[in-house]
Amino acid sequence: MKKIFDYLRRLKAWVEGYADKPHAEWVLFLIAFTESSFFPIPPDVLLIAMAVIVPKKAFRYALVCSIGSVLGGIFGYYIGWAFFETIGQPIIQFYGAGGHYENVKQLYSEHAFVAILSAAFTPIPYKVFTIAAGTFEVPLTTLVLASVIGRSARFFLVAGLFYFFGAPIKKFIDKYFEILTVLFLVLFVAGFVVIRLFVKN
Questions:
Q1: DSSP assignments along 146-175, one per residue
Q2: Which SS3 state, helix, strand or coil, does residue 92 take?
Q3: What pLDDT is attached to residue 33?
Q4: Domain boundaries, the chain
Q5: Crossing angle of helices 140-165/126-135, nearest 10°?
Q6: Contacts of 159 (CB under 8 A, 6+ apart)
Q7: What is the pTM of this model?
Q8: What pLDDT digit, counting tens, does each position of 2-12 carry?
Q9: Are 127 and 89 in contact (CB under 8 A)?
Q10: Beta-carbon count within 10 A of 91 CB
Q11: How far is CA 78 from CA 31, 36, 95, 131, 140, in A?
Q12: Between 155 and 180, where is the model more confident?
């Protein structure tokens, strides 16, 4: 477990290292884009670092993050629609979501908008839902609308917290990174449990 935490800390530090670079916004856009289809580290990490360095631009960064993430979601949709077996399925299996995939399929047949909106806002891997949306041919307009609302709400909430409260929150995250990582994983599993219960009901 320690090796996993060390790896995640190094990856987090690598992402944060771009925060004060001239091309930071483009990197933020790229990470937000790729996280919506395969990259494991959420763009919130870089968004937070950038918002701490230049708080007055926090909402601008949130907008960049939102646009990149929604466009990345469309790319994830395309992966699911055109390349599920060769690309999409390995990504799903990497995140340990293969066992929940049929539940997601049933959920999409009845509550696609709510499911995507929830995944866009919460720690549930958004990429799993964007790929699944393409595989199960959820209307693209449903994906885009739910993503715009959910992703924007999430990133602007993060930006607002750091705009008003700044560095102390980041120090808290750095200090309790391992605990927060475990909590994130618990929420990830709980999200799929909720989905399963929701489907059954």
A1: HHHHHHHHHHHHHHHHHHHH-HHHHHHHHH
A2: helix
A3: 95
A4: 2-200
A5: 170
A6: 47, 51, 58, 59, 61, 62
A7: 0.75
A8: 555 564 556 55
A9: no
A10: 19
A11: 18, 12, 19, 7, 10
A12: 155
